[in-house]
Specification:
The chain has a domain of about 150 residues. The protein contains seven helices and ten strands. A hairpin with a 5-residue loop joins strand 8 and strand 9. Strands 3, 4, 6, 8, 9 and 10 form a six-stranded antiparallel β-sheet that branches. Strands 1-2-7-5 form a four-stranded antiparallel β-sheet, with helices on one face. The protein is α+β, with helices and mostly antiparallel strands.
Length: about 250
């Protein structure tokens, strides 16, 4: 009886062990559990178009940055060239010559800039009238022509003497369409004082504060400016005002 029971024990243990094992999961078909995802042709075309637009916008922006950088470089180069060739004209007036230690009226125009200047004209103003010749200005204010006539009469009476040295003289010039290099000075009017021209000399010197002058000139890059007796520089499109006695181009 006991032997029969012992023989049945291993079979029962095996059955219990098999029952205790977890059930193996059964494979299932993923094709049925996952939803299918498929792009239509219109959606694909839309995505491609958006990508193309994005690439085009990025390319355009890069081109814009390159063009802007190139433009800034060109602008900087132009400014540098303008600075290196910029003329600056100034009027000057003096009534005493230190070299000769003599009272002398001298009117000059000087180029204090960094490049040459092409002077197109100098315009003077006195008592509301404009003049393009300094001798016309001096005659309008101080009757210079009468002084010149007196010098001519003196020469006729005493032709064997240096009447300019004895009675006095003056030099005038009209700087129109001339090239004035940087650092150079152009003399417009000079008159030493003498006993013969004392009255005229004093009258001209007394009027120096009421004379107005304006010079129009251009650089070699055709950038034009005006300057006046107070050294006020103004950039202008061109020197369009042409005096009637100027040299034609």
């Amino acid at each position: 009886m006991s032997e029969h029971n012992n023989n049945n024990l291993p079979s029962e243990n095996v059955a219990e062990t098999q029952a205790a094992k977890p059930a193996r999961p059964q494979p299932h078909n993923s094709r049925h559990s996952r939803g299918s995802f498929k792009l239509s042709r219109s959606k694909m075309n839309t995505i491609l178009a958006l990508c193309a637009m994005f690439i085009s916008a990025a390319s355009f922006y890069a081109t814009y940055l390159q063009a802007k950088a190139a433009q800034e470089q060109v602008s900087a180069a132009e400014k540098q060239l303008k600075t290196e060739t910029w003329p600056w004209l100034q009027f000057s007036y003096s009534n005493f010559d230190l070299d000769s230690t003599q009272a002398t009226i001298r009117v000059d125009i000087r180029n204090s800039g960094t490049g040459p200047a092409i002077i197109h004209y100098i315009k003077y103003e006195f008592d509301g009238e404009n003049y393009f010749d300094v001798t016309e200005l001096m005659d309008a204010c101080c009757n210079l022509n009468a002084y010149q006539a007196a010098l001519d009469d003196a020469q006729e009476e005493e032709s064997n003497i240096n009447y300019l040295k004895k009675f006095g003289w003056y030099v005038s010039s009209a700087p129109q369409k001339i090239l004035l290099a940087d650092g150079d000075t152009f003399n417009i009017f000079t008159m030493p004082k003498s006993n013969f021209n004392r009255g005229l000399w004093d009258k001209i010197d007394a009027h120096k504060s009421v004379f107005k002058a304006e010079a129009c000139y251009c650089s070699i890059l055709k950038q034009c400016y005006t300057t006046n007796e107070k050294a006020v520089i103004t950039e202008v499109p061109s020197c369009s005002t042409t005096p009637t006695n100027s040299i034609n181009e």
